[in-house]
Amino acid sequence: MTFSSNGKDGFPLLHSIMSYELHGLFYIMSAIFIHLVLTPIFLNNEKQLKYLFAIILIALVFLYWGFEDINPYIYSLHLFPVCLIIVLLFLGITPSWMTWICFNIGCLVLFNHFSQPVLVSSSILLISGYIRKHATHKQKLGVKLLYATGMLIMYDVLYVMFVPQLSLYAQYTMLLSFPSVWMVTYLLFYVKKNEVHKQRLLLLEKDRMIGQMAATISHEVRNPLTSTRGFLQLLAQKEITVHDHKRYMELALSGIDQATTMISDYLNYAKPAANLQEQLDMKAELDAILRFITPYATQRLVTIELSHETEAPLFILGDSKKLRQCLINLLNLS
């Protein structure tokens, strides 16, 4: 293998390469930034989050094709390997396949043929990433940087094997690709670390909410169950009339239904049903609550007296079950 200059050397050559590579990095960094902004929306779905970055990256590659002056060396020795390596390291095999297909199609469209060195190098890189997909999943930053460096070296070596004469421009492009892959790996590592931190905070918040819900449920359910127990004790009395027996049975079942409804509401709190607003007669609601709460009060030697300032009905708009539960809780706590 021989290496030769194409007539350009020194600072102008480096300036040209760095200018092209910085343009490519701009698109990669834009993908990282957009991914970071959209992460909270997809935080609960890790699979969608992985595909999101791959889709953003591919979309920006299409923009790169349309608006940039594309240099074949920069495309094949910088942009392609850097993008493929970071997707392999952080997103998994399926997004990597998407990236591989996209960039190789770019070779066909932009250069009118599949570049054999690029196709072979990227294919072997993809296979090696698949073999080591579990080894790099939760590695530290230093290990990921080593993997990224090794993968880029492998890509470059494979590329060189298929090129009979490598220009100085291509050599510099290869060398300057290493700082790029290090920088992007560093940034994506902390972006993913931030995602993990947010997911842990979300799990902690869910655990806290579950604890609060458990305490609330135990309090809310205890009240109707206590009243139901009182009615069942009244049913055990021998001198009870048939009318009272039927009434106590209905009230006991009503308490069980109320407890069941509250449990169902808490289990479905993530999908709350629409509030059923209806016209309620406050006098009728208070009378119903009084019948339900009386056995509970009697057990504690408490007398409840209910008086209405007027015989005219007082109507409000609300949910009967929630209103009754609220008033029962107030009476039990008083």
List keywords for this structure.
334 residues, mainly alpha, Heat Shock Protein 90, 2 domains, two-stranded parallel ribbon, 4 strands, rod-shaped, disordered N terminus
Q: How would you describe what is shown here?
A:
By secondary structure, the protein is mainly alpha-helical. The protein folds into 2 domains: 2-204, no CATH class; 274-334, Histidine kinase-like ATPase, C-terminal domain (Heat Shock Protein 90, 2-Layer Sandwich), CATH 3.30.565. 75% of the residues lie in helices and 4% in strands. It has 10 helices and 4 strands. The protein has helices at residues 11-38, 46-67, 72-90, 93-111, 116-131, 141-161, 168-235, 242-267, 282-299, 320-333, and strands at residues 2-4, 165-167, 278-281, 315-318. The strands form 2 sheets. A two-stranded parallel sheet has the order 1-2. The longest helix has 68 residues, at 168-235.
